[in-house]
Specification:
The complex is a heterodimer. Chain A is an all-alpha fold. Helix content of chain A is 73%, strand content 0%. The chains are: A mainly alpha, B mainly alpha.
Chain lengths: 495, 320
């Protein structure tokens, strides 16, 4: 089942005088040019939100150690900064970066130019407006109080309408695709685009429009947050990795059969996880048990996806020395496996009872949202931006700095939160210790996390600066992509 | 589109499966519960909250209390919640049927609040010594008997705080809490060795809120005055708390003429408390939040979640 990596293996029929490779190249350039404005709008917004979220995170993190700071300023209280920071991260940065990448991938894979980009750009504008209103709403004290859904109603409506514009447009593009087989990345993207509106609408209706009774609200909240992480971010991230890894190293996905198996099992099992985080809460026990079982079963898609990437990469790992895209993407793909394994361990009842209500949950979320998804998005941006602006990245040193500061930053943060949360949980469950002991025990780790926050801040600022250079046309004009290290000998594969 | 139908069907089918299985079916099971009553229809539990508590839930949401405080008591096999006296039984779905927003919570940077309106004002062992470390204890303890007679109007104050709590090993801070109805001017001589800084500011304080207490021999729960002190200046109540101070829910104003009857009584000087001549008056939001906190009470017995006898039958509690 080794399908060639060229996404459409059939050359255009009209290729009699020029070679098919040349036609392909021109066609790709045309497609890239058509997506240029839309992709850059999404990326620029995303990066701006990322920087804002980082700034909010710094203040929030500081306030956790110094709770009396600015105690008179209502919109800077920790309980508002913290959800504001996180929601800006998921709706501003992660969703917009994901949609930008998804648009470009969709255009490339459907081999169709982007029609009516203005529709898409107005979608992006409304989405930005929704995030901005949501951010202001939370800071002004209008939060709904449901985790990951804090944006008040007026913001949610803007987000939803914006989303419908974006999604409709993506589906239209799929409708107009050139013949040829539908690549696995398109499966993931279609899934993500169709799942998100249903998920978001279902949560909004069940929590705010016709609120359901009592603890079921908490269950719906948990279901939403989990599926947002898996079916929305997870699908886009996995789909992107399935494109980038084979593309950069220049060989087909190891097994297309494994890829489809991975897709279906991923969708089926991960959509049933999430309730394990309500362990021992006031719920019917079967809900928790079903989610634990589903979490364990997610090992199947994780194993298939991991094995597939590994086999594709086999013999080509050395390319990570040169290609920024590959380095970020492989980091993300490995983090996805780590994320899932941590998720399984955390869901087992014995462990869950220790780590419940601790920072382990935060660490787990960041492992998925940052170490996996965000790193894959960085990788895809390193691939896509040069193609849409027609310049290459200016400084290899900045890319390296970006990679290492984000890799060490997120690695340190996740490690500290997981270990610290476990320690916190152990003292929380020991009734002979006063409660304050559990808070005390996590504090050193939280200070360490602030340190990792500095690394991430550096990483984000470096990346934003570099992206700004590209945007303003200061990229290198070269036919060779920017490699992280000088390529010794023959240059292999793509870029 | 042929060949793609299975893809679209699968994408929709899988999501429908998750949506039905994880939200719709459980909602059929526990989504329309009624309050529990006796055979004769009396003793209804739970009952809807007052308007102020409802407003308080919004304040709770707006300021993100849920990111650090859970509101659920786990069963005895699921953690130390019961041993920490955060509740007398596990929480059940029925406890939440009238909640406007259910704050089950996912994090415990602070303690659980499911029963904060009911459970005894118990300080963590060895945790908080009140105000200026060693010096504060004596005046605080000394002040409460002195205060009681001076505030005859309040039934709560008549309840001798030290007598109510020694059995649960209350630290001095809890006594301060229980003695919330402020040292009236007559108490001043008793607290003579205390820096007089803010005592005058505390004058009549929150007598009205103190009537929430029941003096039926139960240990006293946290009072409204305690909540206000805690929200305004958490570290004046618990030394090593890292809860943010919510100054913006309070108005700080200079005392001109008579002090406000609503002003917080800070029982003891502490860094962060207002200086002499100033008073701290709770806003309507602060009062709503405290009303909400004081309505957190899952003490009533439920058939489906009996109090476990911890030593006798571990983990054998009735689960319907």
């Amino acid at each position: 089942m080794n399908t060639p990596v060229e996404i459409n293996p059939e050359p255009p029929a009209s290729a009699n005088e020029v070679t098919s490779a040349e036609v392909d190249r021109v066609e790709r350039a045309l497609i890239d040019a058509s997506t240029r404005l839309a992709v850059l709008v999404f990326y620029t917004s995303a990066i701006a939100w990322l920087i804002l979220s980082t700034l909010l995170a710094i203040v929030a993190s500081f306030k956790l150690h110094a709770p009396d700071t600015l105690a008179g300023v209502s919109f800077l209280t920790w309980g508002r900064l913290s959800p504001a920071q996180f929601d800006v991260l998921i709706y501003g940065w992660a969703s917009m970066a994901g949609m930008g990448t998804a648009i470009w991938l969709m255009a490339r894979l459907c081999r169709t130019t982007l029609r009516h980009p203005l529709l898409l750009i107005s979608g992006a504008a409304f989405w930005n407006l929704g995030v901005l209103m949501g951010l202001i709403g939370i800071l002004a004290g209008d939060s709904t109080g449901y985790e990951w859904l804090e944006f008040p109603g007026y913001s949610a409506i803007a987000l939803f309408c914006a989303y419908l514009l974006i999604m409709t447009w993506a589906l239209i593009m799929f409708r107009f695709r050139r013949r040829g087989h539908v690549y696995i990345t398109q499966w993931y993207l279609l899934g993500a685009f169709l799942w998100f509106p249903w998920l978001y609408a279902a949560a909004q209706v069940m929590l705010f429009i016709f609120p359901i009774q009592g603890v079921m609200q908490a269950a719906v909240n948990s279901w939403f947050a989990n599926n947002l992480l898996f079916l929305w971010f997870g699908s886009i991230g996995l789909g992107t990795a399935y494109y980038m890894i084979p593309k950069v190293i220049g060989r087909p996905v190891h097994s297309y059969y494994l890829a489809t198996l991975g897709f279906w099992t991923f969708a089926l099992f991960s959509s049933w996880t999430g309730m394990q985080r309500l362990i021992d809460g006031p719920f019917p026990a079967w809900m928790i048990t079903a989610s634990i079982a589903a979490t364990i079963l997610t090992m199947i898609p994780v194993a298939t996806v991991g094995l597939n990437h590994h086999m594709t990469m086999r013999g080509y790992f050395s390319l990570m020395r040169y290609s920024p895209t590959l380095r970020f993407t492989v980091f993300g793909a490995v983090a996805y496996s780590a994320f899932s394994i941590v998720g399984v361990v955390m869901s087992l009842r014995t462990v869950a009872r220790i780590v419940h209500f601790t920072e382990v949950g935060t660490g787990y979320t960041y492992l998925g949202l940052y170490a996996f998804f965000t790193m894959v998005m960085f990788g895809s941006m390193y691939y896509i931006v040069p193609r849409v602006v027609g310049r290459e990245w200016r400084y290899a040193s900045l890319i390296k700095l970006h990679f290492w500061s984000s890799a060490y930053g997120i690695g340190l943060m996740v490690l500290l939160l997981l270990v610290g949360g476990f320690v916190q949980g152990v003292s929380l469950n020991d009734p002979t210790l006063p409660f304050s002991e559990s808070t005390e025990s996590i504090l050193p780790y939280l200070r360490g996390r602030s340190l990792s926050g500095i690394l991430l801040t550096v990483s984000h600022c470096v990346f934003a600066f570099h992206f700004g250079l590209m945007l303003l046309g200061f990229g290198r004009t070269a036919s060779v992509p920017t490699f992280l290290n000088p390529v010794e000998g023959e240059r292999r594969g793509g870029h | 589109m042929k060949g793609l139908q299975p893809l679209f069907l699968g994408v929709f089918g899988i999501f429908a499966f998750s949506w039905l299985g994880m939200t719709v079916v459980p909602n059929l099971q526990i989504g329309s519960l009624n309050p529990q009553t006796d055979e004769d229809g009396s003793d209804v539990y739970p009952s809807p909250r007052s308007g102020m508590a409802l407003r308080g839930a919004q304040v709770y949401a707006a300021n993100g209390c849920v990111y650090c405080h859970s509101q659920q008591v786990r069963p005895d096999y699921g953690g130390s919640d019961l041993e920490r006296k955060w509740g007398e039984r596990r929480s059940a779905p029925r406890d939440y049927i009238f909640e406007p927003i259910v704050f089950l919570g996912t994090m415990r940077t602070g303690p659980d609040l499911a029963n904060i309106g009911h459970r005894p004002a118990l300080q963590e062992k060895g945790a908080a010594t009140p105000a200026p470390a060693p010096a504060g204890a004596a005046p605080a303890a000394a002040s409460s008997p002195a205060v009681a007679p001076s505030l005859g109007a309040s039934p709560a104050a008549a309840h001798p705080a030290p007598a109510a709590s020694p059995s649960i090993g209350t630290s001095p801070a809890a006594v301060v809490a229980a003695a919330s109805p402020a040292p009236a001017p007559s108490a001043l001589p008793a607290a003579g060795d205390q820096p007089a800084a803010n005592v005058p500011t505390a004058a009549p304080s929150l007598v009205a809120n103190a009537s929430e207490l029941t003096a039926d021999g139960q240990p006293l729960p946290y009072t409204a005055a305690w909540h206000h002190r805690h929200l305004y200046n958490p570290r004046s109540v618990t030394d090593d708390s890292n809860m943010p101070a919510y100054h913006f829910l309070y108005e700080k104003r200079r005392i001109s003429g008579a002090a406000s009857p609503d002003a917080i009584n800070f029982a003891g000087a502490h860094e962060g408390n207002p200086e002499s001549g100033w008073e701290i008056v709770p806003s309507y939001d602060a009062k709503s939040l405290v009303a909400y906190l004081m309505s957190r009470d899952q003490a009533h017995q439920l058939k489906e979640a009996k109090s476990p006898v911890i030593a006798a039958a571990p983990g054998k509690e009735a689960q319907k």
